[in-house]
Amino acid sequence: MFQEHARTLVRTAVLLIDDEGVAEEVVQEAFLGLHRRWRRRGSPESPEAYLRTSVVNGCRSALRRRRVAASARVPRPVPDGSAAEAVLLREERTEVLAALDRLTRRQREVVVLRFFLDLDDHAIAATLGVSRGTVSSTISRALRRLEELLGGNG
User: Fold this and answer.
1) How far apart are the C-alpha atoms of 34 and 65, rounded to whole Å?
2) What range(s) does the RNA polymerase sigma factor 70 region 4 type domain occupy (predicted)?
3) Does residue 89 share a domain with residue 72?
């Protein structure tokens, strides 16, 4: 299960907290929590949903700790390719991450869960503990805000 889901969960966490090291720790803690739960109460109904929810909650905790500690961000590794491509990719990624950072916490969470993990409204609602209507309206507001921030042509 770890090999099947860890990479996607780490990427999700990176999008939520923009720190790969902390993202890896959050995911590791989520898998440890799942293991502890299995030992105490058996398998949850959906281990994947349990992990997603644990990662989102772990990211929330990490962001709270970051705000208190006011820690610096770690630069991301550059993908393979030409130097020009690497610079363009880094600039685009920086712009998108900066826009995600300017969304509310819930808006950022629903955008990442919808467009990175490709979850439907029901799965997002279950992960975040909100109604499907809240998910739909939050996605709509988040997309409008991202369009404003990224200079979309309405």
Assistant:
1) 23
2) 95-146
3) no
> Rounded to an integer, what distance in angstroms lies between the CA atom of residue 149 and that of residue 41?
45
Question: Is the Cα dihedral 94, 99, 102, 108 positive or negative?
Answer: negative
Q: Residue 20: exposed, middle, or buried by beta-carbon count in 10 A (0-12, 13-18, 19+)? A: middle
Q: Which residue has the higher pLDDT, 63 or 128?
A: 128
CATH number at residue 103: 1.10.10.10
Q: Which of 58, 77, 96 is the last residue of a domain?
A: 77
The model carries a pTM of 0.61
3-class DSSP assignment, residue 7? helix
User: In the structure encoding, which two tokens stand for residue 27, read together?
Assistant: 């995911």
